[in-house]
């Protein structure tokens, strides 16, 4: 048997570690002598290169580059094409793993054939399975998948010899944010809760600077860098560089040259912190969510562990100090601690798996790790009144794993005519299945026929890797039913409809949507931040081959932030730069959207988000009526002190007026985007 290593397969960088001759985990340097191997692949040479050299090619703007693919693990939609071949995120990750394996073998002088690989706690089933598959493709038997914050706690617990304590692990990487509450002792790590956002990381901080630069450059020169992918890449690189500078210094000079036009800007750390405050604030919300799930308050937390490259930003340290009342724990290498923890877990796996008599160093008594999953597991069920589909949670999130629960079904076999029970498994918290991830369609057959309905116990579990396992037993006979996992159908729109109606085929319509976002002063801070996340979620769900989206902000000033476009980045940049101030002139905003929707034969929507009454409420209703009379469909979403009746008067239909409470806005917008993509049934005035 070859050696086993621990691997932190990161969005930006990856690290491999193993225990040394003294039983201590240590990072294995790559062939260039570095501890971090960029998770970047350059396809311009044969064979493609991985790591630092690939990153250099990316820096000079080469396009045959694959990077930042980890967030797309397990997604069938994500594909990159190089030299006529498609690569999904699993295949790309396999190349990074193969490089890490080869470098580790060169350093250790032995074969490496097994690994413990870490994943963000927020990774769901498909992403975990894809990670195991990437390992297999790279020639590694993946002995275990563990959560990154748990690995960090393991490594930290090992280096500490103190009493039991409860710590919070704040892990802000390049593309994901995870926060975990764990009890650690020299012998064990017990994760109590975890929360996170897989769309929040250093990249969002870069985007914020990039939007700021692009906007300034466009205003001064008339050239918008967002129009050209090459220029955009340049702006993003400069933005990240400036962010790093601002970790060491209080201001950064940024020179942007496009063609012969050159401009220099000065960005201070203070200004950077102000423009990215909503992002920091979002981490606070998620941290509080994790604490509440663990049923703890700050007083019960004895320290905060910072993990991930983005925690180098001074604002993170300040923020953590402000939240917890203490400085974060020192002595942790934010880049390496996760890989070291994976190596500790690897030793534990090996300790239990090895039966040979070779003497081994024990790892300071570390014996037990217990973890949780951050997503609930459930099934699609009929509501009690039979009028809708609901997400019936079976294993609640933050239950310790491995976890197993059963759900009973009554199955009518009709004397053998019906030998098929279909179960749709969901992962997610929303009561509406359409807002959850549907993991699979599990089809059970092989019933022993009786003349009665039979009871079926379907058990589902999270194994120690956080991967979902399902099986079913016919209760009266006790025999296990045959199970097949069928692909999830592309069209799941029926989940959002009453059970008896079918799907709507007329979903190929071209659409133009204007988002009208309230930026009056009452939206300042958290509400605007949530609105921005929701608007981004909306964009994520839009099919930009058929949809154009524009953005209008309204306070006392109404601004066309983005003309309707099929360039998602442009709208995203516009969303990022929203700022709240002033009162609410909704009427003028609707009127502006109407003019921009006037000359198009696309299906037209206006989606309004507001948190209260506008200044001239009746004028806004009148404008909305005019728009509706012209065939524009209006969706009105309210938060905060918005009035439900008022929303109803603005919207085209009852189901197009929605009041979202705090925390629901992202899923509400996602829901609206899907409804629009599916032809807008229920949002449209039926003429
Ligand atoms: P990770 O995924 O943990 O490797 O973190 C990568 C992220 O950390 C990227 O967004 C980097 O831009 C960010 N990062 C690395 N070094 C610094 C630094 N000195 N200041 C701010 N961000 C940094």
Rounded Rg: 27 Å
Into which percentage range does the β-strand content fall? 25-35%
Tell me which CATH architecture of the largest domain applies here.
2-Layer Sandwich
Q: What is the helix content?
A: 25-40%
Shape: globular
Description:
The protein has 687 residues and is an alpha+beta fold. The chain has 16 helices and 33 strands. Strands 1, 2, 3, 4, 10 and 11 form a six-stranded mixed sheet that branches. The chain has a six-stranded mixed sheet with strand order 17-12-13-14-18-21, with helices on both faces. The chain is globular, with a radius of gyration of 27 Å. The relative contact order is 0.08. Residues 10-13, 173-174, 201-203, 240, 243-244, 247, 308-310, 312-313 line the site of adenosine monophosphate.
